[in-house]
Amino acid sequence: METTGFQFANNTPLSLSPNFILPEENRPILSEVFSSASIPTIDLNNHDIDDLVSKISQACEKFGFFQIINHGVPKELCQRVLAVVTEFFQLPPEERAQFLTTDHSKRVKVFNYYQKVEGQGKVLMWGETFTHPWHPTEDFTHFLPKSPPQYRAIFTEYAREIGALMDKLLSLMSQGLGLEKDCLKRKIGERPAIYTQANYYPPCPDPELTMGLQAHNDISALVVLLQMEGVSGLQVVIDGKWVAVEPVPDAFVVNIADQIEVLSNGRYKSVLHRAVSNKRLARLSLPMFYAPNNDTVIGPIEDLIDEVHPPMYRNYSYKEYMDEFYRQEGARRRVKEAFQLQH
Ligand code: OGA
Ligand code: NI
User: Could you tell me which of 56, 45, 212 has the C-alpha nearest to residue 123?
Assistant: First the structure.
């Protein structure tokens, strides 16, 4: 039987069957990962608001990625959510199979990323992903797994905390652009699409032959990612080089995704990133995405356009953006480029 990615998270030693092996030019070259640069870590418990706004806005302009500490989300809740999601991935595959689908319209699903490689077909990434919405809580809770039994309760509590944190970040980012505090939140819309995408990367016999998650830009607006301590894997591009985002204790990784890059007329950057696998340890990451809904029209905010700063993107509905994202499935996606204006 062909090994599918889905049989994965069973904790048995895994072998790297040919359907995971990337052609040489698509593999990560781990010896070239640059170790003397890193994304900034920002203390959110800073009462000098101007200073905080300026640190956040510089990080968004230069790196598109930063870590936050003293963010107010209880440590113990973060540990519980990581534990319960790990337990989900350790359920017998038959239990996870009820969520397995390649249908894009399904909002709660387990799937594997892949790359389409000429002459080789689909090459699976070394990871399994579980995605579901988490807001508004009352609309989605009953779609969540019944097992592990604490999943729903923990996730609901976690969602509330992350929702409040995202509001705070959006407000600081708006101020950093010289806009009203609620501007970005208003532009992303009254009914944002909010979902999580838990990524489980089992230990991999040879991390240089495969990829956990191929290089991509996040298409949503804003991402708050929780990762396990002590296991790295997330890498971002800084000055053209791949750099590891080492887990900082009790921190979240925050990144600007495409919609805020467009709204900010290119001032805040949605930066290329990827996840590589680990030889000895499994890794879990839990990004929470905040995105517009399909009907929302996105384009550069007018206050950020002038003669020196002409619009860098055209206006579009988020549905158009998603359609373009799905059209590029399996490729190294370049979605925002399709909406860029030339000057
Ligand atoms: C993602 C992502 C990185 C990671 O899910 O979009 O970039 O560390 N994940 O798993
Ligand atoms: Ni991402």
Answer: 212
In order, the DSSP letters of 184-240 are HHHHH-SS-EEEEEEEEE---S-TTSS-SEEEE---SSEEEEEE-TT---EEEEETT
The pLDDT of 132-137, averaged and rounded, is 80
DSSP 37-56: ----EEES--S-HHHHHHHH
Distance 199 CA to ligand 1 centre (A): 7
How many angstroms does the Cα of residue 274 sit away from the middle of ligand 1? 7
Judged by DSSP in three states, 112 sits in coil
User: pLDDT (tens digit, 9 = 90+) per residue, 13-22?
Assistant: 567 888 899 9
Q: Whose CA is nearest to atom 8 of ligand 1?
A: 234
Going by CA atoms, what residue is nearest to atom 1 of ligand 1?
287
Q: Which ligand is nearest to the CA of 217?
A: 2
Could you tell me if the CB of 234 is within 6 A of ligand 1?
yes
Q: What is the DSSP string of 132-154?
A: EEEESHHHHGGGS-SSSTTHHHH
**Which ligand lies nearest to the CA atom of residue 130 in the structure?**
1
Is pTM beyond 0.70? Reply is: yes
- DSSP β-ladder status, 193-201 and 297-298: unpaired
pLDDT of res. 332:
81
